[in-house]
Amino acid sequence: MTLPIAAIFAILTGCSDMPKSNGLGYTPETRDVSSVRDEARELSTQLRNLMGLKGKVTKPGPGVDLCGDQDPDNLYVIRHPWSLYGAPVEDMKKAMERLSLELPRHNWKIVRFGPDSSPSKSLELIANSTKGKFSVDITLFDQRNDTGDAPSASKVSLINVELVSACFRTPHGKTVNQD
Questions:
Q1: The pTM is what?
Q2: Beta strands, E only, the chain
Q3: Which of 22, 78, 126, 167 could form a disulfide with 111, with the two C-beta atoms 3.0–4.6 Å apart?
């Protein structure tokens, strides 16, 4: 299950400082796309290391995406979806348990840990970085329980990671595509 982007932003920022004009519930921080992309890469590396699991990792790196229907030239989010596969399912379960214990020690707040709402009741961990403006949704898809809800109806067990930032604004004079 992937959280809707508005829910992630509400979790990340709270709703108390909600300017009504932009519909986000917060004022996006101004940062270069490359610096937020680098931070996403570092956080994904941290997550992978905390899993302590050997396996194959999908290659796509962090990418830029629209911040909802807000100012597409200047507002953006960074998404870094990736998966780890090729490890025994029991080791993947232990990695998820390890994450639930270790993430709070590494500047993450666990929002949810347990079976998701899918028919297969996949183990899911949702956490927010307490240091940066990122949220992560990590799900263990066990192909032995496959009900067709795994990414691309995967035939292999995997841990799917969806790391996403809050919305950011490009510095004055730059657009999302210029960075």
A1: 0.83
A2: 29-30, 56-57, 63-66, 75-85, 108-115, 123-129, 134-141, 158-165, 168-169
A3: 126
Number of domains in the chain: 1
SS3 115: strand
Cα gap 123→88, rounded to integer Å: 15
Exposed (0-12), middle (13-18) or buried (19+): which is 68, by Cβ within 10 Å?
Answer: middle
In a domain, 34, yes or no: yes
**Could you tell me if residue 178 is inside a domain?**
no
Q: Which of 153, 140, 143, 151 is nearest to 53 (CA)?
A: 140
Quick: pLDDT tens for 144-158: 776 666 555 557 899
Domain of 73 in residue numbering reads as 5-172
Closest CA to 11 of 108, 114, 140: 108
CB count within 10 Å of CB 33 equals: 20
Distances (CA, A) of 18 to 25, 72, 77, 102, 119: 4, 20, 18, 32, 36
- The answer to whether residue 177 sits within a structural domain is no
- Tell me whether residue 179 is in a domain: no
Pair of tokens at residue 44: 């994904």
Q: Is the dihedral of CA 25, 28, 33, 39 positive or negative?
A: negative
Q: What is the CATH number of the domain that holds 65?
A: 3.30.2030
